[in-house]
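[09:14] KT: can someone run the structure on this one? pasting the chain below
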Amino acid sequence: MSFVADASVLAAWFLDEKTDPRVEAAFDALSRVGSRAPAVFYYEIRNVLLVSERRRRITEAMSAEFLRRLALLPVRLEPPGDDANIMTLARARKLTVYDAAYLELAIREGLPLATLDRALEKAAVAEGVALFGA
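[09:31] RB: done, structure tokens below
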């Protein structure tokens, strides 16, 4: 079964921050069954890379390699979800609109959510969404 992966999980894998066992489990499952993400994932991942470059944790060449490898992974970007649902989730669960987009997709598709974001995890549990690897 597929799952919704947020940027924190794949960024942790590629930035070699695999201290959480969910990161390895999500990456392994991703290669087998694929994952889905809202379109904002495209920009979030790139922002993580840019911030990491600015902090001198990675180089531009490393960012380029990350994006090359990411393009080979079966991550299906989904079109935007329902505006009203996303805004309602963001308000009710005190999430960013970006995080609410991941949660809305998981709810809409009935998929588990893979995230390292504690606020998003808490909101997912409150909404009855299964957490990947939990």
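[09:33] KT: thanks! The chain has seven helices and four strands.
[09:34] RB: yep, looked fine to me
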